Amino acid sequence: MRAVVTVIGKDTVGILHKVSGICAEYNVNVIEVTQSVLQDMFAMIMLVDISDIKGDFSELVDRMTALGTELGLSIHTMHEDIFNSMHSV
Amino acid sequence: MLNVYNILETIRMIQDECLDIRTITMGISLLDCIDTDIDIACEKVYNKIVTKAGNLVPVGQQIEKEYGIPIVNKRISVTPIAMLAAACPDGDTVKFAKALQRAADTCGVNFIGGYSALVHKGFSAGDMALIKSIPEALDVTQNICSSVNIGSTKSGINMDAVKLMGQIVKEAAEKTADRDCIGPAKLVVFCNAVEDNPFMAGAFHGVGEPDCEIHVGVSGPGVVRAALTKYPDASINEIADIIKKTAFKITRMGQLVGARASELLGVPFGIVDLSLAPTPAVGDSVAHILEEMGLEMCGTHGTTACLAMLNDAVKKGGVMASSTVGGLSGAFIPVSEDAGMIDAAVAGVLSLEKLEAMTAVCSVGLDMIVVPGEITPETISAIIADEAAIGMVNSKTTAVRLIPAIGKKEGDTLEFGGLLGSGPVMPIREKSPAKFINRGGRIPAPMQSLKN
Do A77 and B68 touch (CB under 8 A)? Predict the structure, then answer.
């Protein structure tokens, strides 16, 4: 099972560190990261493996959302199924 | 395979274009709750609902978190209560409404639908008592929805029931006049009602359905409109294709959420209702889609054609996306719940007559239309009869949800708040149809061949 974490907002020091830190805390492995910084806007999409997650997925979602609020970023954590079902026949 | 563009598209649809799951609705059969003692029956109803649907709201919230998609409403539909009321003719039918309200409060759901009667061919035991109790039931409860089916293509239109419903709608408005006449906003009069509708106020759990099941109603007018804005010069068949593709994506999400809810609740998956259901929120309007297609304002000439195309394209895209499609499926045009419709009605461009024409090619009917308070019950009945005739002859579901604005006249507005929005009082014809309505009887079922 995999999930997608997207982070969009103003670039600051340590975004990747903090997001992946939460992943590590929940035993969630980061599989792939694409990121770009255009002027000072930061956009990152992270594919993570949640098969061996410690605790609830919804807790992870809450933590990420809280981090987003703290850093002034928009962070979405969603199960990959929603993208797969919406974009493939 | 996941790609960045698709991921960002999904997030944009949810964040900026008001994409959501409008409702997950649990259908529950109450046939095993029938009892000759109304108090025992009510207790059974309460117990069955809270046992089956106790987890509905937490499961809905869990899915919202998992997929990051808002599920706006969690609802319940039940067996038409008239069938339960039939067993206890001496009881006060409103007790059932109160039991349903208690169950809604316990489960934390937004609405329970099914304070209903099916009288398209005639009244059986329980039907009359239930219909007569509707105004009081809607007055003393907040989250209970009522519907009455008064006609069908196979049986014709029960004009006695049509006459009665004109009086009931008016009475429901009078009883709740102090709350912006909210009563009739929770009451739908149907022709060809469907048994697996997840949308309120017309949801009930048909007798042909299993004991318990989960239905999903999707939404997303904002997404369709946003998709169209990218192609300002496309021809109409290109637009139809864009709508189909968008409807596919929206419906896939409904299918995913329904399947997950069914798995988590241990209840069979019923249907996905392929609907474009507007809300009063900015950017969530069906009228604005029609305007995006090239109408200066919804309600002008050309509106029926645009809506017909939209409705058909939504179905074509959605059918491919879901294994089980049902419910009402199509575009909804509730006036007070759609920012674009409200504007068009206020501007006088969208009239009752145009809405009636639109209902011949779209999902439901004359929905959430505010009419002057002095409207007579006979005129309400005649509007119901007109709309039912469209449904009967065209083998489709039509419905009427009119709100007589007691003490108000053309130019005034009723404010319901929330998803129900606000509606301007729309003008009606003043000549009386009373003699026609008072004849009673039944309009015979129509021919099904020699179609022209």
Answer: yes
Chain B residue whose CA is closest to A7: B8
**pTM of the predicted structure, to 2 decimals:** 0.91
The DSSP code sequence of B387-440 is HHHHHHHTTS-EEEEEEEETT--TT-EEE--GGG-EEEBPP---S--HHHHHT-
Measure CB to CB from residue B65 to each of A6, A58, A84 and give the nearest one. Answer: A58
pLDDT of residue B290: 94
Q: Are B163 and B395 in contact (CB under 8 A)?
A: no
Q: Give the pLDDT band (50/70/90) at residue B326.
A: confident
- Give the tens place of pLDDT for each residue, B161-215: 999 999 999 999 999 999 999 999 999 999 999 999 999 989 999 999 999 999 9
| Chain B residues with beta carbon closer than 8 angstroms to that of A79 | 66-68
Residues in B closer than 8 angstroms to A49, CB to CB, are none
What tens digit of pLDDT does each residue of B131-146 get? 999 999 999 999 999 9
Q: What residues of B are in contact with residue A45 (Cβ under 8 Å)?
A: 4, 7-8
> In B224-268, at which residue ranges do the beta strands (DSSP E only) sit?
none
Amino acid (one-letter) located at B213:
E
A49 and chain B in contact, CB less than 8 A:
no
* Closest to B48 measured CA to CA, from B94, B102, B90: B102
B7 with A89: Cβ contact below 8 A: no
Report the percent of chain B where pLDDT is more than 90: 79
Alpha-carbon distance of B336 to B369, in angstroms, equals: 7
Distance CA B203, CA B195 (A): 8
- ipTM of this complex prediction, to 2 decimal places: 0.84
* Closest-approach residue (CA) in chain B for A64: B65
Contact B68 A89 (CB under 8 A): no
As given in the structure block, the two tokens for residue B426 are 């729309």
The residue of chain B nearest to residue A89, with distances taken between CA atoms, is B321
Query: How far out from the chain centre does Cα B230 lie?
Result: 31
Beta-carbon separation of B10 and A6 below 8 A? no
Q: Tell me how far apart the alpha carbons of residues B328 and B198 are, in angstroms, rounded to a whole number.
A: 8
Q: What mean pLDDT do residues A17-33 have?
A: 93
DSSP string, B287-325: HHHHHHTT-SSTTSTTHHHHHHHHHHHHHHHHHHH-SSE
Two structure tokens written together for A44: 């990152």
Interface test with A, best of B59, B66, B264 (most A CBs within 10 A): B66
